[in-house]
Amino acid sequence: MWSNAKDRALRDRAAQVIPGGMYGHQSTVLMPEGFPQFFTRSDGTRITDADGNTYIDFMCAYGPNLLGYQHPRVMAAIERQQALSDTSTGPSPLIVDLAEALVGMISHADWAMFCKNGSDATTMALMTARAYRGKRKVLVATGAYHGSLPWSTPRPGGVVAEDRAHLIYYTYNDPQALADAVKQAGDDLAGIFATPFRHDTFHDQTLPDAEYARAARRLADEHDALLVVDDVRAGFRMSRDCSWETIGVRPDLSAWGKVLGNGQPISALLGNDRAREAAANIFVTGSYWFSAVPMAAALETLRIVRETDYLEHMQIIGELFRSALTGQATGYGFTLRHTGPETLPMVLFEEDPDFRLGYAFCAAAMKRGVYLSPYHNMFINAAMTEADIAETLEATGAAFEEIKQNRDTLQPSQVLMALMEA
């Protein structure tokens, strides 16, 4: 029997000592009522909450779980390096090994720099673009997420206009809107940011149009600016290379994170020789940026990426999840929208503008052991099996039945609606 008594008690304690009780993208304030906030174990495809409830996890820690939690080869590499050294006065030789590995795998990359978070990597890209020719204006797509620092955070608290004074916004996948933004920047264009595909929260995902991607490359070249692909979320889930290699466009810079160490804290900025001098002239650092254990985990993760069919397996499992859930929904009288790559599935209900169907469905599935998101893209990991999908469908079938029976009484999330209106 599902219970969340311990989770509620932890929330009460947290509210006394942590502002808001919890913060950041892993706060469950926007999730359906009762979603667990605290977890005690993760293994393979599953997570266990503070009350001992176990879930098939389709959020994968919001992306870092690429190969499966506690992957044995990655864990062995971590243990070997922990016995030697981790955070020290300088980096271990692994920093060179890891840079060489990434340069050998990513077609546009001639060099690599390492940090901890996706926000670190995208900010390094921003700084490098501005240092390249001493210009200031940076183009970003409206609604795109590039991290949580003042220049990029989606929430306004603590942010002043000056933090974004030199950002210009354009509509993703619209070459004309991009060209208009470039014109607005004039002679002060430093860089153009793009995501691998449109993956804005609360919205359908949209794969990039080749014309738009080629326009971004052409405009950057014409104005001697740097093109940046933010691969923090999608890296190694669409390709073994930079995600825009799939449409034949190479950036000058790419930001990476989440999956690099299969859960270990490490991110990276990769760049070509055009941007090398600019990257060498920015000052960025952190006491834990050069720790050896995450680099050991990343090296082993990259070996698995190169040597196994992890990607093809995820694509098969993702398509199985998508097609089976669609058929199941139809049988219960619902229509779903699946958008984006099959390895990063976004699942929304048709005719559900206030998310009341999506919220009730995910809440019902959660109480039956499947952790889904009603408003954010999800993630497939390489440890998922057909048996996991079959078990998922047992839970989602019961969830569809529950919301069908209670459809007239379902309520939207007031917190979510207030956020969307803001």
Automatic annotation (TrEMBL):
PROSITE patterns cross-referenced by the UniProt entry: AA_TRANSFER_CLASS_3
Source domain of life: Bacteria
Required cofactor(s): pyridoxal 5'-phosphate
Record's keyword terms, sorted: Pyridoxal phosphate
MF-aspect GO terms: pyridoxal phosphate binding; transaminase activity
SUPFAM superfamilies on file: PLP-dependent transferases
Family that this chain belongs to: Belongs to the class-III pyridoxal-phosphate-dependent aminotransferase family.
Protein name: Glutamate-1-semialdehyde 2,1-aminomutase
Species: Pseudooceanicola nanhaiensis
